[in-house]
Amino acid sequence: MVVSARAAEARASIDRVTSYFASMQDVANDPDALDFTFGNPKEMALTGLVDAMRAQVEPRSVSWYAYKSNERAACEAVAAGLRAELGLDFEPDDIAMTQGAFGALSLAFAMLADAGDEAVIPMPGWFCYAPMLHAANLVPVEAPLDPVDFDLDVEAIARAITTRTRIVVVNSPANPTGRVYSRETWDALAGVLEEASRANGRRIWLVSDEPYRRIRFDGIGFDSPVGSYPWTVIDYSYGKVLLAPGQRLGYLALSPLLPSEERAELRASCMPLQLAIGWGFPDALMQYSVPALESVSIDLAELTRKRDRLYGALTDAGYTLTRPEGTFYLWGAAPGGDAVAYCAGLADRNVHVMPGTLFGQPAHFRISLTATADMIERALPHLVAAANG
User: Fold this and answer.
1) With a cut of 50, which residues of the chain have pLDDT below it?
2) Within its chain, how far is the Cα of 342 from the centroid?
3) CA–CA separation, 172 vs 42, rounded Å?
4) Ranges for the Aminotransferase class I/classII large domain (predicted)?
5) Residue ranges of the alpha helices (H) in 162-299?
6) Are strands 95-98 and 321-322 parallel, antiparallel or unpaired?
7) How many CB atoms lie within 10 A of CB 66?
8) How many CB atoms lie within 10 A of CB 162?
């Protein structure tokens, strides 16, 4: 074998996604396609995003486009935003600016775990957790969500923990289900992790994947597990709330509740590791834009209208759906129980939704709400017609 074992494992665990992505390229370039697959924009970029970047393009010094690490103004803006949102005393030194949530997760895995350690991941969950863990020479261990309401199953996580467990990954609001988990759930999970850490004689870390934190419906509040379990790090991406996943901007935030010595050690480790994993910092222009981008968001009222239109019409047609509390996805059971066949039938009508096989759920599908309202109206007759399998 030419490639490393971990490269082969990473490829095998993501192959169904990369194959699907390749198969969708013609669809992505077809102006008549009704594409509800990936969370890509279907309309022009937000004015606030363009204005924020445009305001920083003109260099103000000879070092304007020099190498950048964790720029102080960006870290200060992020820390202030986290203090306002989560009510905890985050400081700029707790923030590492990264190339989106991908970069933040890569940094967390490199910083917290050693080769061969296990990381518990939720299922159904984001399809890049496992390949990223394999690439980091770590071992993904799946823990199923509740099969009925897709709530976080704390007991399933407890069963998945072994003496080799170093990390547990959680995701709220959750992709693909749209669930937002409660403070009571986090408190219960904190108890499990504290007990398991004591039994193992080694701390288990919680990685809270929060790229959809600011995309919630119906006035639903948000609790981060960082308030329940001090040994938590938060990864975040601006690509979701800005609907601009191609502009790579995110961060890793360390819990301000960590014991002071551990907090200081992690702070001192971030920048060297960001260098070591391949200059894991956002580009200069994106970092300069952070203070302005903290207040820019997609239109949540319009997104709510899209959710309500699709959810209402499809449930009326007989679909079984999970009503999303956050994210910009709609998750449901495929009519007939075969997601691949269901999605293929819709594709024949040039309507494209994502099969749950990409999430390890062959009987489910996901619809992206980033489609336009016009696309939704044009697709609905086809979706309703497919309701009976």
Assistant:
1) none
2) 26
3) 24
4) 34-382
5) 183-200, 260-276, 284-293
6) unpaired
7) 9
8) 12
Q: Are 104 and 232 in contact (CB under 8 A)?
A: no
Strand ordering across the sheet containing 321-322: 34-36, 351-355, 364-368, 329-333, 321-322
Handedness of CA 71, 75, 78, 84 (dihedral sign): negative
Helical spans, DSSP H, in 151-279: 154-160, 183-200, 260-276
Sequence spans of domains, the chain? 5-46+298-388, 66-293
Token pair in block for residue 129: 């957790």
Write 297-300 long-range contacts (CB < 8 A, 24+).
297/214, 297/241, 297/242, 298/46, 298/215, 298/241, 298/242, 298/243, 298/328, 300/215, 300/216, 300/217
Give the model's pLDDT for residue 240: 98
Please report the pLDDT score of residue 138 as a whole number. Answer: 98
Q: What is the pLDDT of residue 342?
A: 97
In this structure, what token pair is assigned to residue 53?
A: 């970047």
pLDDT computed for residue 388 by the predictor: 82
| 78: helix, strand or coil | helix
Looking at the domain covering 5-46+298-388, what would its CATH class be? alpha beta
What's the topology of domain 66-293?
Answer: Aspartate Aminotransferase; domain 2 (3.40.640)
**pLDDT recorded at residue 38:** 96
Amino acid identity of residue 200, one-letter, is N
| β-pairing verdict for 118-123 and 165-171 | parallel
Give backbone dihedrals phi and psi of 239, rounded to 5 degrees, phi first. Answer: -60, -25
